[in-house]
Amino acid sequence: MPAKGQDMQKSYYIARLIGPVLCTVGIAMLVNPEIYRQIAQQFLATSAFLYITGVLLLTAGLTILNAHPLWTPDWRSLVTLLGWMATIAGVWRILAPQYIPFVGGGLIAHEHFFIGVGIVLVAAGGFLIFKGYVSSAGAIELETQHE
């Protein structure tokens, strides 16, 4: 089992990768909700997109879970949770693609769906950016002093 410092480094690294992506997508949804509604409608109408994104989500989720299988009483559990969410979403899209348009169509039909999702993504992404880039600077400095 890796030392706690190695686990923390993995957490910071993954937060630095995921945080900016979530934040960027969230901001884009807040700025362009109608364009994202059109994209979602096109996406849900194409089985090939559903399948390909399922494979990509499953791969990304399993990558996170293999590198970061931690359930801790701090922020790092969010990284693990995102890995599980990606894995489950990927499996769902691969095994039951016929249900995705029904569920997704119902969600995107709500007027403020993309505003709500955008807010959640900006909040989660901003938090991970803070943890990965700002708070990790002090932690990395402390680790190098103890070596």
Q: CA-to-CA gap between the ends? A: 19 Å
Which spans have pLDDT < 50 for at least 5 consecutive residues?
none
Percent helix, as a range, is over 70%
Order of helices and strands: HHHHHH
Per the principal axes of the C-alpha atoms, what is the gross shape?
Answer: globular
Biggest sheet statistics: none
Number of strands: 0
Give an account of the 3D structure.
The chain has 147 residues and is mainly α. It has one domain. Helices cover 84% and strands 0% of the residues. It has six helices and no strands. It has helices at residues 4-31, 33-44, 47-67, 76-95, 100-108, 113-146. Helix 1 (4-31) packs antiparallel against helix 6 and helix 2 (33-44) runs antiparallel to helix 5. The longest helix is centred in the last third of the chain and has 34 residues, at 113-146. The mean pLDDT is 90.
List the helices and strands and how they pair.
Layout (H helix, E strand, L loop, with lengths): L3 H28 L1 H12 L2 H21 L8 H20 L4 H9 L4 H34 L1
Brief sketch in words of this structure:
Helices cover 84% and strands 0% of the residues. The chain is mainly alpha-helical and 147 residues long.
List keywords for this structure.
147 residues
